[in-house]
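Async update (no meeting this week)

Hi team, since we skipped the sync, here's where things stand on the single-chain job. The sequence we agreed to prioritize is pasted below, unchanged from the tracker. I ran it this morning and attached the output directly underneath so nobody has to dig for it. Comments welcome in thread, and please keep replies under the output.
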Amino acid sequence: MIRIDTLAGRLVMGLLLGSAALPAMAQLSPEAQRAWAAAQERKAEQLMRGAGQERAAAVPGAGARHPTPMPPEQRDRWVADTGKLLATAGVIQAEGAGGGGLAPWALITGYGTRDSYGANAHYTTVRTQDYTLKSYGVAVGIMDRVELSAAKQEFYGSAAPLDKLRISQDIFGIKVKLAGDAVYDQDLWLPQIAAGVMFKRNNGIGGLGAVSNVKQLGAASDSGVDYYLAATKLLLQQSLLLNGTLRLTRANQMGILGFGGDLGNRYQAMGEFSAAYLVNRQLAIGAEYRMKPRNLSADSEKDYYDTFIAWFPGKNLSLTLAYVSLGDITIYNPKRQNGVYLSLQAGF
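Output:
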């Protein structure tokens, strides 16, 4: 049998077959003739569709111009769902981790649920009588389980003899949720628990003449690692959040003045505590307390504390304002440093 591969050949064959059937059609009723004609039209359409598919397959890349539409469930797979309750992602603390202003919490940053992700960028400034601290960076929460963060701190003096002081440090963090869920475990006593690590590196000192490294102030090292375990309990019925963090650290003033020193160079366990009351869905007030080690003779380091108000107009923006006390910072300006903490956070 001869194979007919071209569209024209197939159409010619269809016409020949149709011509051969004309004598028989004369004997059919009008309704049967119309049915036969409709069947021939359907066969011709099928032949043309088949020929078009064969041409597309024969031309490389022809189908790429009209790709098969992606199903909606696949299109939405990489879109953040922002499924968490408003304000339950916390804010970004001074070292870049998700939490309050001073202490990291067990909450994972961002509003992505366990099937999604979230991310935030922050800018924070703290101004006291003699110093200014700036912090900015980004943090990413993955599947409400893992948090990655990167932040930079810049510290400036504004009063003599340290009015030209400039110090900066880089901080990279990772946090992993270990147990519990702050939102869904309302009928359990178990809080949400997370463990975290902060890798810190001091970039040196500027504005102090020959003093260019924190080791010249007595610090044992210009880099260090903080380890912490955080537990956060959210009581939705009482509109209350409670957090406790235990940190193992050698850092002097969060690492701004290096790590370890002439008074001690071992890891010490420091407690950090936070309480927040949700006035409504968009507004929270609270307080924090953070214990600090004292490793340097040149720095009579004291504990930190603050009282704050945080506003969440939506899941993409938050603003935190606080009164903060950072204690004494160096013996050269020996007075308690109290001031204003302001932090802006944007993300999803």
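Quick observations from my side:
Residues 1-25, 58-67 have pLDDT under 50 and may be disordered.
Helices lie at 7-20, 22-25, 30-58, 72-75.
Reply here if anything looks off.
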